[in-house]
Amino acid sequence: MIAGIAISSAAFAMDKPYSYRVPEGMSLSPGQRVTVPFGRGNIRTEGIVLSLTEGEEAGLKAVERPLEPEPLLSDYQLRMAAFLRERYFCTFYDAVRAVLPALFWFQETETVTLTQDRSWETAAIRKEGAAAMLRAIDDLGGSCTASALSRQFPDEEIRRELLAYLARKKWVRAEKEYLKKGGEKRERIAVLAVPAEEAMAFAGTRPKSALAQKKVLELMASVGCASVKDICYYTGAGVQTVNRLEKLGYLEFRQRQVLRCREINPAPVEKPLVLNEEQTGAFEGLKSQLNREKPGVALLYGVTGSGKTSVYIRLIEEVLAQGKAAVLLVPEIALTPQLLSLMAAWFGDKVAVLHSSLPNGERFDQWKRVKNGEATVVVGTRSAVFAPCPKLGLLILDEEQEHSYQSENAPRYCAKEVAMWRGVKEKALVLLGSATPSVESMYRAKQGDYSLYRLTRRYNGRSMSEVEVVDIRQELKLGNGYSLSYPLRQAIHDTCAAGKQTILLLNRRGNSRALVCVDCREAPECPRCSSRLTYHSANNRLMCHYCGFSQPVPERCPRCGGPMKPIGTGTQKVQQELCELFPEVPVARMDADTVSAANPHEAILDRFRQGEEQILLGTQMVAKGLDLPNVTL
Questions:
Q1: Of 353, 327, 367, 326, nearest in space to 265 by CA
Q2: What average pLDDT does range 90-94 have in this prediction?
Q3: What angle do CA 223, 224, 226 make, to 5 degrees?
Q4: Rounded distance between C-alpha atoms, residue 554 and residue 552, angstroms
Q5: How many CB atoms lie within 10 A of CB 474?
Q6: Residue 260: pLDDT band by 50, 70, 90 thresholds?
Q7: CB–CB of 248/219 below 8 Å?
Q8: What pairs with residue 501 in β-bridges?
Q9: Ordered strands of the 377-380 beta sheet
Q10: CA contacts within 13 A on the Cβ side of 444
Q11: Which DSSP symbol is given to 21?
Q12: Are 549 and 543 in contact (CB under 8 A)?
């Protein structure tokens, strides 16, 4: 048997299926991960089996061992990874890393060991640094990890080159071990191993010194099964007491998986869901398209507040009734808590959430719930497009025009394109929803490539928002030195006086766009990507928003020594101005600088929703369809 295997360490130019011989007695399947010898030095490398063919070929290297008993990737996931590789010019392994959660991957540890050939001690080694590396390994006991050599050989490229040279000379042997980063969380369960009457009779014979055993047996006689942690909590007994009862034969221990999934609080909703005339027309058309042999792509073009989400909910209900699953994608993580609460109100524990900000353990458990069919409604950002739904019926991209559906890291996939690929392959309807569709989506809808459905009026006949454009040049003539115009300041004052709330959107974080020298007009640039550094007043640093480079603010111009002046406006500067102009009004700021693990976007939005702050200032994450009834400005 010959296996075609994609190698993890192969560069894009060398990324192809490599042929390996499957040893006698080893059972492999496509989608299974294995370790194989690769390259001249036969370095142990991770690979994924892509194909298996009958036959034998002399001289082929053999597969060492499988890394898991069952295939991790299904047939359609292998095809999806192949599509990502061809479409976005990445390696097969880069594509698979986008499809799978991080906890499925292995921690690679390389051990370097001296062989029995000690001829290097007397040989004239011409390779610079090779002799020093051999002596370093010998000093470490003849065996060490590759990372242990990094102190003496910090340059990774040179270190790799030296190790490859020594392996070719057969003076060292490099072996890789793969340890899984994580997996399922399990807890120990105690089960009563005898009838309850027998347990109670034994508890009655316990002396006062064994009071803890009596309490444990009484609890187990009433519940029959409980985690060891709960038993100790409710009885005050120690783990040793529970272990002793297991040895006496009154308890049995088992393992149970614990899901690391946070509780979703359902939003208050009115049931049943009632659609207006326009929504009903759009739903009936989409329902008809959903039941076709090839559902294709549809565009739901509805003005803001027209009730597109209600149409989504009715469609998801229809899909679930057919025994299929639905995926709802949103452009920003800030939107997921709100949509999750709404979906939980309609679909209960069938809802799963997938996005990059989830802890690895929780994301792993949510992914498994979807794969096992326990969760059939998936809500998430662009990475949720890879959700492993067994029977996919509907893929929805809300705010389909947003650039955040395009990944900026390898593989640089577009979630919209991946969704359309899945729609074709799995015969699922792809629905694009927006109040401001992208030019290409609207063009294709008008050309007839997509079906087009319109919602032209707001739900319940509400009027559209008033929009006022302010000429900032007039503000400068009036002597307004703030970033906030006089009409805006007056509107904020009136809104706060009425007990209502305000959202201010400024799509630039930091204090100012840049620092510019007054004399030579030069602005500090990032040495890595040549973009202007943004001034952040909170930590008094200049930062690059592309690569993360930062440096302290110079006191004078590095070029001519002239004074530096900030130009432009960012969210930090506007927050400072708001605190000056409205000292009694609490202000919340939500951007990439304030959102963190300790202060997540959910917490910021919850405080604002509860009225703890009257003004919410932020970048684009504050303007993505948030449902906040008290916001009037």
A1: 353
A2: 91
A3: 75
A4: 6
A5: 11
A6: low
A7: no
A8: 631
A9: 351-354, 377-380, 325-329, 392-398, 429-434, 297-302, 451-455
A10: 13
A11: E
A12: yes
Q: How far is CA 471 from the centre of its chain?
A: 41
Q: What is the CA radius of gyration of the chain?
A: 31
pLDDT beyond 80 at 528: yes
Distance from C-alpha of 504 to C-alpha of 616, rounded to nearest angstrom: 6
Q: How many CB atoms lie within 10 A of CB 456?
A: 9
- pLDDT for 275 beyond 70: yes
- Using alpha carbons, select from 350, 342, 355, 268 the residue that is nearest to residue 308: 342
Q: Are 162 and 155 in contact (CB under 8 A)?
A: no
pLDDT at site 592: 81
* Residues in Cβ contact with 608 at an 8 Å cutoff, skipping those fewer than 6 apart: 501, 588, 616, 628
pLDDT value, residue 320: 95
pLDDT score of 481: 82
Antiparallel, parallel or unpaired: β 392-398 and 325-329: parallel
Residue entry with tokens 């506007």: 574
**Angle, helices 156-168/130-139, rounded to nearest 10 degrees:** 90
pTM of the model: 0.72
* Residue closest to 577 by CA, chosen among 610, 533, 537: 537
| Mean predicted confidence (pLDDT) in 81-101 | 91
Rounded to 10 degrees, the C-alpha dihedral 229/233/238/243 comes to -40
Residues 333, 381: contact at Cβ < 8 Å?
Answer: yes
Per-residue pLDDT, averaged over 502-529, amounts to 88
pLDDT at position 612 is 92
Mean pLDDT along residues 397-424: 93
Which helix (H) or strand (E) is 36 found in, with range?
Answer: strand 33-38
Walk across the sheet containing 65-66 and list its strands.
Answer: 18-21, 2-7, 43-53, 33-38, 65-66
Dihedral (CA of 334, 336, 342, 344) sign: negative
Instruction: Please state the rounded mean pLDDT for residues 449-467.
Output: 86
Per DSSP, 212 falls in state: H
